[in-house]
């Protein structure tokens, strides 16, 4: 029989925590909110939900969130707490307003679900006003140091892959080249995964300064090998994006080339299981972190389990794409 | 007990038919090819598959297709016979070459799966060389007169709707406007269905010359009503497309507006049941039509059952969008 | 420019209507509720939502539903108004209670979304208490006379088809027979559509008393033809169900046979576009029907447009499966 | 610029390898076959595909597989090499036949994609005939020691989760209990993941001997908390399965309870990205392992990268479910 200890010690004496989502929305954010609310409830801690991220925080858009309020949300895309950008939060005055509201609500810590920009916003609050802040990595780009994966990443890859599978139908039928741009302004994680899983001929990522012309030779070879249609994946952050790559192919090979920019659909949709599970674990971990007296860290998950990374490290370091996987993409496109 | 008569009379004495797919690929084309091959086999008729549409026909890219060759294809997107554009086919010489190959193969009729451009190509062949041609409506746009729906249409709507559902997650979370362009160069069928099914605030179609400015008022009202995020659907063929509509909204309301052009993903993917069933019925009907001595007609399906429409009528007439549905879209966006 | 007249005449002087869902839930019920609420609102009519079907009606579980209350529901499976069975409603006393509540709320008509059992319940109410009742066909089985399709049917077929596609992967890999039971207690509509769209070898429906032994010969032939794996579809209502068919095949052929009963997953999921559109149209039509002074009819949709069928006819008549499609299933399984 | 070395040293002097799939099929097996074929081709090594697993091996059902033969297979469920059970292989004579064929084909090593039963079969071959065997973990159950995940597992979880999401629609609408049985004869990995991702109230796995009666109390509490409908997940290998759990709930609470056994659909479908990527990496690694002179090991993937586990360890050890995740499932069901 497996022993479960559901009670987590609470040396920090936390009685109430606040939670918000910030930055671009990511599938699984609701699962993370739900996990925060329910893990807290299981420990007798109350949760205050802040609407519209930091923008709502400095305006005091807050309300109590109970376990039933997050029922039937684990499978929902987007974020029930809404998200927004806030210029006011970048000012000390804005943050002071937010801190005032948090104190008024008697909150012992703030959980910020978002990317490194959002962690920045939270970190300033903690530095200036002493309110403990815990980051939960929620962004589709997977570009956060300190966790193997970020919440939303798996779903974004799946959505992009589904699109690639569809485009391949047309590419193969018309023996056409498709150049597909996926999200990733600063990182090629999505692009690389989609390239391997989609059986792409080539992938362009911001981490590698591979000259655009190389693709022309690759496409030519691929046609000579008898391939029907080719799929080229380009990360948004690669210089020039998919359009530049497509233009180069069209000019260099004369083959019919189509450019497809997948865009925002990659942010939406019901989260896949891996994102829901990761969000559930990290949401739970964030509550325990506050109870343990942690502050100014991001909870992450690596093979070894839950980890804490000081917030500044999440934006000072970058997370490399896997070179092994990059080789795998190349080797299997033979 | 339901009596089934599987034997269809064959006054035309057909022994062999050819089949090709032409124009843009559409989900369900494989189901139609399969139906042609198997319906023919069930009547003791052989089928010659032509690869790469008319382009392959004038080059003689042909081979026999048996019932096992189309096994496990009903669920596949694209077309196993490939498709291509052909300039040569637009010349009498090109068509003469095609006719020569068809006669060499002893073919008693040609089944063309595609849109009105493809039917045009087939019609010329019949006029000039006397080879009976039957059209099967395969195009995602649903813009063919003579059939309630075209093969591929249902899947395209479903794919676009899935994207709309995903974008709504983000739209609602950020309280943002999404302007989404769906396929339909000359017709608003996809756009209108997606608008109703996607719960859009507004839809722009080529059939209605509604001024672009009207959308600004609609979006403003929608915000006043308390709607979180708005979805606007624009058919590709509407003047200026989604970009123009998005620009107008951004300029007129100042609200954050995102434009998303869904593009070619709408052509791919495993066909939904309605497309597979329609393709199965029309592929079967095309074989029977040749056996009955029909020529120069498109087989279609309306509520009354299978219909024959002379090929020229398919491009001389247009199929209206439903005005009732157009009103429904408006009424339900309140 | 397409003229839209959004104002519907209201000779019946309707000011408020009630709506409920009853019987088994079906995907698209929420889209129908939304359409009722918004079509009513567009005509200045209020809507009272009744929770838990007739069971909630005789207990007075009612509340006003405005256009914003149904926001973001069109894509949701199940029914936000809940549904339940009610023994009390089968008694005159129970119905008198319900009528009393409806009068208290000042309701000019009741819209019942459900199947023929639910229409029965509504019809009694109208007969005994004079409250106009309009039926909206919501059931996955498609077994309602008076409409080409019922709300939920398209999604159920799609869900079952998706399962068939998945089972075929395994069936083909193991060269195994799969016997798959789909919903349809009294009708073979789902089974037949799934059989054609899934490329099944054989289909058993309640409408045809085909002896179970015939399947043995068909499966044997299918193996001789070189088919890898076979798919047999059985409607729930066929004598003995899938288990009996599977046992007969195993006993008669010695081939590895697996029985899969899809069950309740066919009721759930986000409705496909066809169900959302049908629900939107019929929900709108139900409101207009009350305004027109209709009572005791089901709104349906056939090729000709919206139709009214007296409620008793919906349960006194049955809707045949298409014999043409039945033949098509057989012909294409060659 | 990222340096890629595509050439792997070949001290073992491998010129040709054989590959087969064995045991229950799993989504991603085709991606693994493709990876073996293409990684080998990239190193100038030929690949012999064996059809129908060990059953085909002792009958010599073998053929060369080139890079184009595996085109367009990465997204396909099932296995293009087919799979089957073999009694003959359990005899020394059967294995001797297989060894003879492998030598005739000049094969320097055999790659077995499957579960521990299949590895057993391969191990005997190596022990008796000296042919190097490499195992690739392909089974949906994830119950193989020596790798964090097995190929097919992620897709199976996703398929089961999709079913749970659908059943919840009905469960919530009818306020009903659903007891859902997922695959896992000896292990609760799928069940636990699905429980957390599906927001289940309770999960029963073979690893924990929790008494069935405990569920009655949990369901009662869940109703008292105001939950609409409950989801209970049961692994196939839990004593009595879902039926026993469902019976206990019905008897103990009197609430309407439905049992749903998901069955074989969990094996099929297009593999999700995580399975395709894992399969690509492990297929590539298996080829390199043979080139490195490895034998009698399974290639696996853990956080640290590619690992080799002696085949006997894969069946002598068991892989625990995560106790942390088990607690998480409980905590979040509050």
Automatic annotation (TrEMBL), chains A, B, C, D:
<feature type="binding site">
    <location>
        <begin position="85"/>
        <end position="86"/>
    </location>
    <ligand>
        <name>ATP</name>
    </ligand>
</feature>
<feature type="binding site" description="in other chain">
    <location>
        <begin position="264"/>
        <end position="267"/>
    </location>
    <ligand>
        <name>substrate</name>
    </ligand>
</feature>
<keyword id="KW-0021">Allosteric enzyme</keyword>
<comment type="similarity">
    <text>Belongs to the phosphofructokinase type A (PFKA) family. ATP-dependent PFK group I subfamily. Prokaryotic clade 'B1' sub-subfamily.</text>
</comment>
<keyword id="KW-0067">ATP-binding</keyword>
<keyword id="KW-0547">Nucleotide-binding</keyword>
<dbReference type="GO" id="GO:0070095">
    <property type="term" value="F:fructose-6-phosphate binding"/>
</dbReference>
<dbReference type="GO" id="GO:0046872">
    <property type="term" value="F:metal ion binding"/>
</dbReference>
<keyword id="KW-0460">Magnesium</keyword>
<feature type="binding site" description="in other chain">
    <location>
        <begin position="199"/>
        <end position="201"/>
    </location>
    <ligand>
        <name>ADP</name>
    </ligand>
</feature>
<feature type="binding site">
    <location>
        <position position="116"/>
    </location>
    <ligand>
        <name>Mg(2+)</name>
    </ligand>
</feature>
<feature type="binding site" description="in other chain">
    <location>
        <position position="168"/>
    </location>
    <ligand>
        <name>ADP</name>
    </ligand>
</feature>
<dbReference type="GO" id="GO:0016208">
    <property type="term" value="F:AMP binding"/>
</dbReference>
<dbReference type="InterPro" id="IPR012828">
    <property type="entry name" value="PFKA_ATP_prok"/>
</dbReference>
<feature type="binding site" description="in other chain">
    <location>
        <position position="236"/>
    </location>
    <ligand>
        <name>substrate</name>
    </ligand>
</feature>
<dbReference type="InterPro" id="IPR000023">
    <property type="entry name" value="Phosphofructokinase_dom"/>
</dbReference>
<dbReference type="GO" id="GO:0003872">
    <property type="term" value="F:6-phosphofructokinase activity"/>
</dbReference>
<dbReference type="GO" id="GO:0005524">
    <property type="term" value="F:ATP binding"/>
</dbReference>
<dbReference type="InterPro" id="IPR022953">
    <property type="entry name" value="ATP_PFK"/>
</dbReference>
<feature type="binding site" description="in other chain">
    <location>
        <position position="225"/>
    </location>
    <ligand>
        <name>ADP</name>
    </ligand>
</feature>
<dbReference type="InterPro" id="IPR015912">
    <property type="entry name" value="Phosphofructokinase_CS"/>
</dbReference>
<dbReference type="Pfam" id="PF00365">
    <property type="entry name" value="PFK"/>
</dbReference>
<feature type="binding site">
    <location>
        <position position="258"/>
    </location>
    <ligand>
        <name>substrate</name>
    </ligand>
</feature>
<comment type="subunit">
    <text>Homotetramer.</text>
</comment>
<dbReference type="GO" id="GO:0030388">
    <property type="term" value="P:fructose 1,6-bisphosphate metabolic process"/>
</dbReference>
<feature type="binding site">
    <location>
        <begin position="34"/>
        <end position="38"/>
    </location>
    <ligand>
        <name>ADP</name>
    </ligand>
</feature>
<keyword id="KW-0418">Kinase</keyword>
<comment type="function">
    <text>Catalyzes the phosphorylation of D-fructose 6-phosphate to fructose 1,6-bisphosphate by ATP, the first committing step of glycolysis.</text>
</comment>
<keyword id="KW-0324">Glycolysis</keyword>
<dbReference type="GO" id="GO:0048029">
    <property type="term" value="F:monosaccharide binding"/>
</dbReference>
<comment type="pathway">
    <text>Carbohydrate degradation; glycolysis; D-glyceraldehyde 3-phosphate and glycerone phosphate from D-glucose: step 3/4.</text>
</comment>
<feature type="binding site" description="in other chain">
    <location>
        <begin position="227"/>
        <end position="229"/>
    </location>
    <ligand>
        <name>ADP</name>
    </ligand>
</feature>
<feature type="binding site" description="in other chain">
    <location>
        <begin position="139"/>
        <end position="141"/>
    </location>
    <ligand>
        <name>substrate</name>
    </ligand>
</feature>
<feature type="binding site">
    <location>
        <position position="176"/>
    </location>
    <ligand>
        <name>substrate</name>
    </ligand>
</feature>
<feature type="active site" description="Proton acceptor">
    <location>
        <position position="141"/>
    </location>
</feature>
<keyword id="KW-0479">Metal-binding</keyword>
<dbReference type="GO" id="GO:0042802">
    <property type="term" value="F:identical protein binding"/>
</dbReference>
<protein>
    <recommendedName>
        <fullName>ATP-dependent 6-phosphofructokinase</fullName>
        <ecNumber>2.7.1.11</ecNumber>
    </recommendedName>
</protein>
<keyword id="KW-0963">Cytoplasm</keyword>
<feature type="binding site">
    <location>
        <begin position="115"/>
        <end position="118"/>
    </location>
    <ligand>
        <name>ATP</name>
    </ligand>
</feature>
<feature type="binding site" description="in other chain">
    <location>
        <begin position="183"/>
        <end position="185"/>
    </location>
    <ligand>
        <name>substrate</name>
    </ligand>
</feature>
<dbReference type="GO" id="GO:0005945">
    <property type="term" value="C:6-phosphofructokinase complex"/>
</dbReference>
